[in-house]
Every structure is written in C-alpha cells, then in structure tokens.
Design brief:
The chain is α+β, with helices and mostly antiparallel strands. It folds into three domains: 2-52; 58-156, Tyrosine recombinase, N-terminal domain (DNA polymerase, domain 1, Orthogonal Bundle), CATH 1.10.150.130; 182-275, hpI Integrase, Chain A (Orthogonal Bundle). Helix content is 43%, strand content 13%. The protein has helices at residues 33-49, 62-71, 76-86, 102-114, 126-145, 174-186, 190-202, 206-210, 258-275, and strands at residues 2-8, 11-19, 25-30, 217-218, 223-226, 229-230, 242-243, 252-255. The strands form three sheets. It has a three-stranded antiparallel β-sheet with strand order 1-2-3, with helices on one face. It starts with a strand and ends with a helix.
C-alpha cells in the first residue's frame, strides 16, 4: 500500500494503491496528497476489520439484483408481489445498488403514494406502499449480507405506517352474519352460506376454507385439517388453484361444533346428490 506522486503536463496528482485479500490491486487518483493518504488509511482500516467491500461488486443494477431477491421468496404469493414490484422500481431500476441513497428511496415512496410517473400516475394504497417498502428493505438487507454494500438505504427512511382497514366498529354483528347466511341460502348460494358458517365456526381464513377438501374433514371426530389454501392465479385471475399455506405454523387441526358438522354433512350430501 502506497501513495505515489505523478506529474503530467506540469500537473501533480497523487495515486493511492492497495491490494485486496485476493491480491488484486485497486487505485484512485487525487489532487492532494492528504486526500490520497486519508482514502488509503480508510481502505487499510476496512481490510484490518474484515469489512472491506469490493467497489465493483455494488455496481450491479437494482433490476438485476432484484431477480436474485425474487427467487428467495418462500411462497407463491410473495413471489408474485416481488414480480410486481420489479416492474415498479422506477428510476432506481437501472441504478447500481451502491449508488442508491435514502433520498432515492423517499422519492420512490412518494411516487407510489401520489402517483407513479411510469404507470399513468396511478397511486397505491397506504398498506401496499408499506408492504413494498418492506420488500425493498429486504432486498437491500440481502445485499448487505452478500457483502455488496455496507448499509441499507431504506433503513434510514421513515416507512409509511400500515393503515388499520377494519376497526371494531366495522365488524358485523352476529345478527348481520346470520342474515347474510340466510340470504345466501335463499338466493341459491348454498356453498357460500356453508363457507361462511365454516369461517364463523372455526376462525379459518377465506383461502383456507376454499382449500378444504373432503379428505381433510374428519366428521367422526369433528376435526378439520388445514393443509392448503386457494390463491388467485398469476394476474389476479380467480380460479380453482390450491397452493401451500403461507407459513408452516398455519398448518393445524381445528375442532368444529355440532352445528358446523350438521351443515357440512348436509352440504356433502347435497354435492353427492348433484353428482348423481
């Protein structure tokens, strides 16, 4: 490691050089000797501490690194979200990841909230913006872990809070739910009524109710085995599509009441009658 003087066309410059752990030489030229020395001291300190980062590694554009991040998604739903964000990175898409600063992130969040210039100025809901900010932060955290950058620029930006969509006052009363079930039955939507009774009696989510099959219903012991769910297909198209549960802890066995049992038995008998 050294600082060398270089004179060319009567002008003096100072070249600082050092070698990385792999033996490759890196250099940078300065107008002043003290600037070159300070820069070299910083690199030496990083090498000693083991937190030196190759300056060329962080030159990968965000859009390219996002492809890697997208493949780490643990569920189809998360992969779809990351795929959508990939097409909405805005001005940051082609920027090297080590050049993205908190100011760029704030601008991006502003575009998501107030209107995206790349998509007819369409804005997103507060909850979606909050979710996308978390995904972007996850991408930069992975880049830090991979040794491509030193800091996550999203961590220094105030994230938009998630909006509480449903309050206690918004929840339907038991009479409201009973009326909805009765209406579904009266208008020929018996399957919908059965699904509402299942959700009410077991606490299952809508996707989990849709993912229930006969094989996972133990009528004798009055137990439901939650092992899968339904999800929209790519593009948001709703169709019969079973998918894994979001997390392993979502896999569970739920007891159900005699009321739910009677309704399911009637529903199953009705389904058999229709097939016949």
């Amino acid at each position: 490691m050294a600082v060398q003087k270089r004179v060319r066309n009567g002008k003096t410059r100072w070249v600082a050089r050092y070698r990385d752990p792999a033996g490759k030489e890196h250099s940078k030229t300065f107008d002043l000797h003290r600037e070159a020395k300070a820069w070299l001291n910083d690199r030496e300190r990083e090498l000693r501490a083991g937190d030196w980062i190759n300056p060329t590694d962080g030159q990968i554009p965000l859009t390219e690194y996002w492809k890697t991040y997208k493949t780490t998604a643990q569920s189809p739903g998360t992969r779809e979200v990351r795929k959508t964000i990939h097409a909405n990175l805005g001005d940051m898409a082609d920027m090297p990841i080590d050049s993205i600063r908190p100011a760029h992130v704030r601008t991006w969040l502003g575009h998501l909230t107030n209107g995206r210039p790349w998509l007819e100025n369409k804005a997103l809901s507060q909850n979606t913006v909050s979710s996308w900010a978390a995904q972007l932060s996850g991408c930069f955290t992975m880049a830090v872990e991979d040794g491509l950058i030193r800091n996550n620029p999203v961590s220094k930006v105030k994230k938009p809070p998630r909006k509480v969509v449903v309050t206690v006052a918004d929840l339907p009363t038991l009479d409201d739910v009973r009326a909805a079930i009765k209406l579904a039955d009266k208008t020929g939507r018996e399957t919908l009524a059965t699904m509402m009774i299942l959700a009410l009696g077991t606490g299952m989510r809508a996707g989990e109710v849709g993912g229930l099959t006969r094989a996972n219903i133990d009528m004798g012991n009055k137990l439901l085995h939650v092992v899968q769910q339904t999800r929209p297909r790519s593009g948001g198209v709703m169709a019969p599509h079973f998918a894994p549960l979001k997390t392993e802890s979502s896999r569970r066995t739920i007891p159900f009441s005699a009321t739910v049992a009677r309704r399911m038995a009637a529903h199953l008998l009705g389904s058999v009658a229709k097939i016949r």
